[in-house]
Amino acid sequence: MLNQPKVEAAYYDWLASVERITVARSLPDPQLTFQMDIQDIVTSVMPGLMMNFPGKGKLRAAGAVATAESQSKYFAFKAASIESAYEFKRAYYQLYFLEEKIRVNRETLGLLNDLEKLARAQNEVGKVTLQDVLRAQIQQDQLKTDIANLEDSRHSLLAQFKAALGLQPDEPTPPLPQRFESTSLDLTSEKLFATALAQNTRLKAMEADVRAAEASITLAYKARMPDTSLGVMADVKMNPTLYRPWGTVSLPIWRDKLAALVAEAQANKRAGEARLSAGQLALAVDFAARAAVYRETSRNLELLQTELLPKQRQSLEVARSGYLAGQIDFFNLTDAEQTLLRFSLDEVEARTQRELSLVELSLIIQGLSPSGTDSGSKAMGAAAAPGAMGPGSGGMLPGNSAPPPKKGM
Question: Which of 83, 243, 279, 334 is 20 to 30 A from 250, alpha carbon to alpha carbon?
């Protein structure tokens, strides 16, 4: 975050707003005055000093307005920091998805190599035809191309990962994590909502706007208080020196103007309160929708890890034994292998979807919109697209109620 220009800009915006508090509650600068009386000659020279004094309570009210506005800027700075962290997490899990998919495809390539050797052995003893060997080789060639395409797409994801860290294109690429971390499954959406709702930066910024509007109402009422100016001048040409004290008092007599100031401040407060209520409602709706996606992806992940993958691995071993015994053909054996590959890729995608939905859920709870989600999905789709042309393709389970991954995400 220290490298992100947008975080730095938001920080200095907040810092400037903090300094404006002192400016708002400070007295106006004193003024030096100078007056001369001239006939044929200079008859008097009167330097002086004048000071303006705002009406009682005006400076305090102006300081309160600036303080509330500064709080709003602080939450904007915090929001920029959270968005920066979100961009990094999204790039992190996109790389995680890619590396895991490459790993699964390589493991499947090794499995296909073993199946080819098995088919060759069966062909040498005359149990099967050469077609089984060729079918295994074709699938290996397709999978090798998929792996090459996925590895090539790593460059674009590394560029996103680098940009998320605020690094310039000419700076060296940082080392990737040796081991990617996933969130534990015991994190429930209810627990997340309970712990993070109080940190919602958007709602806090709206609350600060309401407080600023309330302070503006107080300041508007203070406009009825007259301002005073006091000063003193001295005629240095006179002997003895002549002193001329003087003062002025403003007359706030335009009642319609004063009433308009108060009405404007009250309207701003009501608008701020309405925006705050709307923000709270929108938060509840967005959270419910995103939490549903999070729970579905968690259930899908648990199903794949605890039921489908273990059973499909067992099914593949049974198919291998059946092929050796001549009970099933090579097509059924490769179908079992393809199903295992599909489930493995589904498990990777479910893990990635779960992590991204959790990150987006956290962002929504903070009061921010995951605006980059679509672009992130497209980037992941570009990485996943090669798998759609051959054995490396993956997809959500048939009959699954969870929405399909966006563009392969």
Answer: 243
* pLDDT above 50: residue 311: yes
Banded model confidence at residue 399, pLDDT cuts 50, 70, 90 = very low
Give the side-chain half-sphere CA count within 13 A for 23: 7
Cα separation, 90 vs 156, in Å, equals 14
Instruction: Report cis status (omega within 30 of 0) of the bond before 403.
Output: no
Q: For residue 79, give the nearest of 374, 283, 373, 365 by alpha carbon.
A: 365
Placement of tokens 């679509």 in the chain: 374
Q: What percent of the chain has pLDDT over 90?
A: 1
> Mean pLDDT throughout 110-137?
80
Nearest partner of 130 among 396, 387, 330, judged by Cα: 330
| pLDDT tens-digit readout, 240-293 | 877 878 788 877 878 887 788 788 888 888 887 787 777 767 766 777 777 788
The domain that holds 214 is classified in CATH as 1.20.1600.10
203 CB-near residues (< 8 Å, 6+ apart): 276, 279, 280, 283, 367
d(CA 139, CA 137): 5
Q: How far apart are CA 179 and CA 336, in angstroms?
A: 30
C-alpha angle with apex 171: 166 to 172, nearest 5 degrees? 110
Task: Tell me the residue range of the domain where 20 lies.
Answer: 5-408
**Confidence tier at 184 by pLDDT (50, 70, 90):** low
Contact 348, 101 (CB under 8 A): yes
Burial of 367 (0-12, 13-18, 19+ CB in 10 A): buried
List Cα–Cα distances, 154 to 102, 175, 180, 356, 380, in angstroms. 10, 13, 16, 19, 10
> Cα–Cα distance between 207 and 249 in angstroms, integer?
37
Radius of gyration of the chain (CA): 36
Give me the residues paired with residue 244 across strands.
233
Number of structural domains (the chain) is 1
Q: Are 174 and 88 in contact (CB under 8 A)?
A: no
CB of 337 closer than 8 Å to CB of 89 = no
Q: Is the separation of the CB atoms in 164 and 91 below 8 Å?
A: yes
Pinpoint the alpha helices (H) of 185-238.
189-196, 201-222
Q: Is 186 in a helix, a strand, or coil?
A: coil
